[in-house]
Specification:
The complex is a heterodimer of chains A (483) and B (152). Chain A has 483 residues and is α+β, with helices and mostly antiparallel strands. Chain A contains 18 helices and 16 strands. In chain B, helix 1 (22-32) crosses helix 4. Chain B is globular, with a radius of gyration of 15 Å.
Chain lengths: 483, 152
């Protein structure tokens, strides 16, 4: 049989370096499509031999967008190495870490919506390439651009106040945090004198949710169907109530109809997950052991989190979550492009949660570090902006790391991204042996919905472009586009 | 203390990647010379929000390591808002930041780019010998020609 192959490399507005290959059969129909990750970094290897307390500092170098998530996941694992489980951390340390985490998710979601996704949403998928970027968004909607910048700035300033630097700062230490919050730092985010305050952040976040709902109404046919497919969904939920959780809780998975597949203590993940490898990608494919490689994979991230939680504990976000759930009659939402809607509901949640913490006086207390009986294994799981993030460390008797396993959000979404690419490729490329700009963009949009961080996922090093290639059944290249 | 008033100097790079630290090393030399640190900004890469930062200053000077060969080991040029768009979250060029600043905030600060040639980019702290020489020449040129303008 004669097939042809299309390769997209690099993919733009995605964090990292990847490549899409689309293979056509002799009739010009898509026979298969692959989203390859072509970079390799090997962080898990070079952490070995380092003292455990260095891990929360070193792993931040995995990423310049979500270093806080890596810092905190590692910190949660390292807490266990000094004998402290999440419930034994001091309340102040827990709140400070949560505030740091909410600020991180807030700024990352703002970055994704304003800088990466908004050009597609505002100008449409068929818009010329020169228009699909933040500069064009800024030219046509200056106020939106200003708000995007100030929302991201708010989150980053919060990170700086807590961790000392906007990127690669340090708050967590084994068993707690190394600094408390001061009255001056708190006032900076509440009084609105130097930057727009937290109430403004809540109001702007609500505006963004309203924007996406209006967009959804106008574009329902496209948004509901583009790259949509049934899947399982995985996320942390509150230990007792099942509420939406970003920092600590149980791991819960539901299938595309809402049937519960998994509800486990996060530290037991090893017993329930495996990672498959494919020869064409450095990115692994995690799946739930019980359900196998074919049926046990999950989506993670904003859409999955809203599908797995029972409710959200912040009032405005919960109201929006209910509207979101009503859209699918309270069933899990499997519509990939609704991830943007879910992401903005989370943005609102984080703004409200930051306010609740800022008004809590115990944030300025001084019970910061606790130490228990040392152990030699620690597992930290957190919901990073892009989804469930797992760090696991083993140490020897001297406290040197002997083994490390990292499963990052984008890795969980690997199968989903590949299916998304396949869905779109079949729709836009059948019988069309050449790669056009709108085709390219649609494939990229399917990937971009997951906000993948390929450098995190492979722990990649170097320059960050992302390639589409069209191949025949013999593997001959017949078209290629590099953006 | 030499006060930089309305001058903003942004060093771009990463000092754990050998010569990629040239921009930061340049700022450290300015600090040693007694320039106030409030107006010296260390950046791994430029981001969209830096358009807001530079909108409050003029002149603005970006300092970055450079892989291409430069005649004197460095170059100093006036830059203007970009005509074409080039953007990723991992890198936004200085002229694109200027473009955004003009588009969003209606301001075009007087902006320069100081490029210093580097040679080695591996994971290691410390500049190569040739990069150190280039840094020294660039710094001498800069302080000789721009000192008075910067601290007015």
């Amino acid at each position: 049989m004669n097939t042809r192959k299309i390769i997209i490399d690099p993919i733009t507005r995605v964090e990292g370096h990847g490549k899409v290959t689309i293979r056509l059969d002799e009739k010009g129909m898509v026979s298969n499509a692959f989203f390859h990750i072509v970079e390799f970094r090997g962080f898990e290897k070079f952490l070995q031999g380092h003292p455990y307390w260095e891990a929360p500092v070193l792993v931040q170098r995995l990423c310049g967008i979500c270093p806080v998530s890596h810092h905190l996941a590692a910190a949660k694992a390292i807490d266990q190495l000094v004998g402290i489980d999440p419930e034994n951390l001091s309340p102040t340390a827990t709140k400070l870490r949560k505030l740091l985490h909410f600020a991180q998710v807030f700024q990352s979601h703002a970055l994704h919506f304003f800088y990466l996704a908004s050009p597609d949403l505002l100008f449409g998928i068929d818009a010329p390439a020169e228009k699909r970027n933040i500069v064009a968004v800024a030219a046509e909607n200056r106020e939106l651009a200003k708000k995007g910048i100030l929302m991201r700035k708010f989150g980053q300033e919060m990170i700086k106040a807590l961790a000392g630097k906007k990127i690669h700062g340090i708050l967590a230490v084994p068993g707690g945090v190394h600094k408390t919050f001061t009255a001056e730092e708190r006032a900076y985010f509440l009084d609105g004198m130097l930057i727009p305050n937290i109430d403004t952040m809540i109001a702007w976040s609500k505006e963004m949710v309203d924007f996406i709902k209006a967009y959804q109404l106008k574009n329902a046919n496209w948004v509901d169907n583009f790259a949509a497919f049934p899947s399982n969904h995985l996320g942390l939920v509150h230990n007792e109530t099942g509420a939406f959780e970003l920092y600590d809780g149980r791991l819960r998975s539901v299938d595309f109809e809402g049937n519960e597949l998994l509800n486990i203590e996060d530290v037991d993940y090893r017993e329930h997950f495996k990672e498959a490898v494919e020869p064409w990608s450095f990115l692994k494919f995690p799946y739930m052991t019980k359900y196998g490689r074919e049926n046990g994979w999950n989506r993670v991230g904003p859409l999955a989190r809203l599908n797995t939680c029972a409710f959200m504990s912040m009032p405005l976000a919960e109201k929006e979550r209910q509207i979101f759930k009503d859209y699918t009659q309270n069933k899990p939402n499997n519509m990939t492009m609704h991830t943007h809607w879910a992401r903005l509901i989370e943005l609102l949640y984080c703004a409200e949660a930051m306010k609740e913490l800022l008004l809590d006086d115990s944030l300025m207390a001084h019970d910061l570090v606790r130490i228990g009986e040392p152990r030699q294994k620690g597992i930290g799981i957190i919901e990073a902006p892009r989804g469930t993030l797992i760090h696991e460390y083993h140490t020897d008797e001297k406290g040197l790391i002997t083994k490390c396993n990292l499963i990052v959000s984008t890795t969980h979404n690997n199968e989903a991204m590949n299916r998304g690419v396949r869905e779109v490729a079949k729709n836009v490329l059948n019988n069309k042996p050449e790669i056009t700009e709108p085709m390219l963009n649609q494939i990229e949009i399917a990937i971009r919905a997951y906000d993948p961080c390929l450098s995190c996922a492979t722990h990649a090093l170097g320059e960050m472009p992302l390639i589409v290639q069209l191949e025949d059944c013999y593997g001959n290249l017949i078209d290629e586009k590099i953006k | 203390m030499k006060k930089l008033n309305n001058t903003l100097i942004i060093g771009i790079g990463n000092n754990t990647r050998q010569d990629d630290g040239l921009g930061w090393n340049f700022l450290e030399l300015l600090e040693k010379e007694g320039y106030n640190t409030d107006n010296l900004v260390y950046k791994y890469q430029l981001m969209v929000e830096d358009s807001e930062l530079i909108s409050e200053f003029s002149p603005v000077i970006f300092i970055d390591a450079c892989k291409t060969e430069l005649k004197r080991g460095f170059s100093f040029e006036h830059i203007y808002p970009a005509e074409e768009v080039s953007f990723s979250t991992h890198s936004v060029p200085p002229n694109q930041i200027l473009n955004l600043c003009k588009t969003i905030y209606g301001k075009t600060p007087n902006t320069y780019l100081l490029k210093i040639q580097g040679y080695n980019w591996n994971i290691e702290v410390g500049l190569s010998k040739q990069a150190k020489t280039n840094l020294k020449h660039a710094f001498l040129y800069f302080t000789k020609n721009f000192n008075e303008q910067l601290i007015q």
